[in-house]
Design a protein that fits this description.
358 residues, alpha/beta, Rossmann fold, Arc Repressor Mutant, subunit A, 2 domains, three-stranded antiparallel beta sheet, 9 helices
Amino acid sequence: MTEANPNLIPFQSKRGEALRGKMIPLAKIKPCLDANYLVQGWLGAGGLSVLYGPSNSGKTFVAVDLAAHIASGTPWRGHKIKPGPVVYVAAEGGGGIRNRISAIRQAAPDLLAGADFSLLPTNLDLHQSGDAMALCEAMPTERAALVVIDTMARCMGSGDENSARDVAQFVINLDAIRERTGAHVLVVHHSGKNAEAGARGSSALRAAVDTEIAISEGQISCAKQRDMEMPDRLFFSLETVTLGTDQDGDPVHSAVVVPAEAPKVKPKPLNGQAEVAMQALRDAIREHGETLSGSDYPHNRKCVPVSVWRQAIELHGLTDGESDSAKRAAFHRAKKKLIDLNEIRMFAGHVWSVRDEG
């Protein structure tokens, strides 16, 4: 007969028994080497995320595009996908969401061909627990890869998104959906008046989610990643798709997300001593510049010796100081700023402008 362990407290509930069954002794804790992702680098399988942005930023277009790739198992912007059923709860936008899905089917007919994608065009009350379980029961499959809640504001019922208590209850119900279906739950949400401050409302949402995705001005960026490395930003544009004509014979349009190049960053205008030093360099290059051979020099830019640049700077009057030390200090400050701003490069006693002259 085996004696009971005197250190173990007798079970008082089924919950206690279940929790003890999940305990892992130290000796049995092993590293998790397999990447448990839904979208490699972006979304974890069975996790919780929020995708937010200001109005008209394209956040629903991005959410639909992401959901379509997951449903079809097609890599998303070069990131691997673990495919599975998708349920998209469209509580905001009316017929717009149907048009956006139709636009994808028209622009990329192979993407959703045979995909397990279901649309639920209604609002839910996920502040209360009833609709969370009702959603799980209504889903066409018991398990899912992704459930999208679009938007949080339309699925909060009587809850207040600024209340930490109400948001916590909302998250509890999202967790119930995740546990019941195994799905990653992605919440589409609005950003606040200051978009850089993140998603609107209580910070309890940010604390709860595994991933935050920010949509702004044609950019998709990761603002938080709990268990994965932060991915690089993605850039996109919206391409118009004509779906047909309405009852008046006018064309009906929607759009699809297409990859885009990173926008060129306009250089900040120079001022003060940096502006004077840069103008002196342009003048020196114009009068004395020459193209130098060797891989360390630009093949399409003229260079001048740093000493020639310094002489030109003195002619331009970089500083009011008359002492040599004051002139040296002013030169080094201006040079450092121009290097930091990526306006100039230097090598072996020569200097050149990174940008075209003027």
